[in-house]
Structure prediction request, 248 residues.
Amino acid sequence: MEHFFSIIGGMGTIATESYVRLINSRVKIKCDQDYLNYILVNDAQIPDRTAYIKDHTQPDFFPALRSDVLSQAQLKPDFFVMPCNTAHYYYNELASLTDVPFLHMMRIAIHNFIDNYPNEKKIGLIATEGSIYDHLYADELSKVGRQVEFGGPEIQPLVNELIYKNIKEKGIVDAQLFYKILQLMHDKYGCHVILLGCTELSLAQEKAPDHPYNVIDPQSIIADVTIDVALKIRQGIEPQQALKKYMY
Prediction:
């Protein structure tokens, strides 16, 4: 297979499925051959990211990701994409394993926020406890001069319920709970834009988009970037050139 990319997924599987569904549905097609070429590694056995980030006595998820990246690198994909925000805790270590370019989901989402909301100096962030605990998004936003609003102590339990109890455990999206979280971040904490810092939250946005709030959805954004890069490479543009504007 020529001109393909590798998806490092399974964190979680339903969220990865959402990303794949987005890229398949957004490509303009007239025949089967118009779809993108990719290999999906749905490694559902990767240990919980948040558990390890918060407590290093828990199983480390890096060895599994390292194995997946190295095995895929041997196939020489044009680029890697990893549709899991929290797993970017190990982005630098993973990217250093291979010469294959590795898209950075968080940085791409943040630059999308800057481009689309240049006058907004603050963004609300809802995410896993792991992403928040290790300042994954906060540090990246600080680099570009933006402030982060996490909301009060009532926000994270609601986010955890939506991510873990609803989506991960039951495979369902509680739309009203999702809307409640967005409303609190907007009305109570003054967030005119809210960043969905977990792919399960991106799934909630996909399934329940009918709300009035401005969101930055990294999974949706990375899906569009994936399509843009993959089609440019298919048209004969060298991968490094096709990826250039996205390698922040």
